[in-house]
Amino acid sequence: MSTTSTDLAVLGALSVEPMSGYALREAIRDVLGQFWSESFGQIYPALASLEAEEFVTRAEGSRPSASLFSITASGRRRLRELVREPLPNRPPRHGALLRLYFGRHLGKAGCLSLIDEVRAEAAAGLATFAAIREEIEADTQHADDAPYWLTTLDLGERSARATVEWADQARRVLGATK
After folding, report:
1. Model pTM score
2. Pick from 19, 22, 154, 168: most CB atoms within 10 A?
3. Minimal CA–CA distance to 47: which of 32, 57, 36, 39?
4. At what angle do helices 146-173 and 108-138 cross, to 10 degrees?
5. Which of 122-131's residues contact partners 24+ apart within 8 Å by CB, and which partners?
């Protein structure tokens, strides 16, 4: 029995509503994409494994890509098990910070450019989070999920704001103001 985070993402998404593999990938990208990603190469093998373990069922459509996957009762139990598992202990990976740490080899201008790129991405994330917040708050169909979704969103918003503040401070430390 697999215990991957991909299984957690797939079962979790299917707990919201049944969907095709393609729709599942789109939902993970569009909804979870601010903090989680899965590729087609991860999703389809997970769906096959989850189907073999009877955690999901497939309703055949007119073509294979139109198959609709639904979570089963045992899949819901499995999802509850997966969300209760301890978090894996993985060190963080942040490419921009790795480059900045060795910034004397990049040069001040390169570092400032990198900081500006990180800041712009965080600022764009804030705009995205605001739109997501509006959608969640307007969605009456998933009211039971909304508090959890908003809690998750809140950390994303706070992290993005902290990144913008960090970028502004980093520019000051490097002797450049915006």
Report:
1. 0.78
2. 19
3. 57
4. 160
5. 122/159, 122/160, 122/161, 122/163, 122/164, 122/167, 123/160, 123/164, 125/34, 125/156, 125/160, 126/157, 126/160, 126/161, 126/164, 128/34, 129/34, 129/153, 129/156, 129/157, 129/160
d(Cα 42, Cα 24) in Å, to the nearest integer? Answer: 12
Contact 123, 168 (CB under 8 A): no
- pLDDT band at residue 178 under the 50/70/90 scheme: low
Cα separation, 178 vs 169, in Å, equals: 10
Length in residues, the chain: 178
For the chain, strand residue ranges (E) read 56-59, 68-71
For residue 26, the surrounding DSSP H or E stretch is helix 21-27
Beta strand 68-71 with 56-59: parallel, antiparallel or unpaired? antiparallel
Q: Does residue 15 have a pLDDT over 90?
A: yes
Looking at residue 63, its pLDDT comes to 66
